[in-house]
Amino acid sequence: QVQVVESGGGLVQPGGSLRLSCAASGSIFRINDMTWYRQAPGKQRKLVALITRSGDTDYSESVKGRFTISRVNANNTVYLQMNSLKPEDTAVYYCNAEIKENVGSYRYNDYWGQGTQVTVTS
């Protein structure tokens, strides 16, 4: 009953910008960490950026200074602003959310979106 849906991917030239969005909906009591991952062809999925419920953030070294993660708790939404994009940023970007479905839930469960393709090429 919980859905996580990403949007905003596309084709962009090197140096360009994109903004990804991820919205969680359904049976949600509280969301803990929200995280963006990416997976390039033939490579493992890797963490890009994380934001805690209180707004603390962490980034992979490869995107520091170029990407900014943010969230709106009231809307169960997380964003990834990507600037100064490089060809090596090309990947499928996935959103992960740690969700407690109701007040009586014992633990947070991981939910993943279906991914959105980002292609950086001239």
Give an overview in words.
The chain has 122 residues and is an all-beta fold. 0% of the residues lie in helices and 56% in strands. The protein contains no helices and 11 strands. Strands 2, 4, 5, 6, 9, 10 and 11 form a 7-stranded mixed β-sheet that branches. The mean pLDDT is 97.
Tell me how many strands there are.
11
Largest sheet: 7 strands, mixed
Inertia-based shape:
elongated
Which structural category do the helix and sheet elements fall into?
A: mainly beta
Structural topology:
Elements: E1 2-7, E2 10-12, E3 18-26, E4 30-39, E5 46-51, E6 57-59, E7 67-72, E8 77-82, E9 91-100, E10 109-112, E11 116-120
Parallel strand pairs: 2-11
Antiparallel strand pairs: 1-3, 3-8, 4-5, 4-9, 5-6, 7-8, 9-10, 9-11
Briefly say what this structure is.
The protein is 0% helix and 56% strand. It is an all-beta fold and 122 residues long.
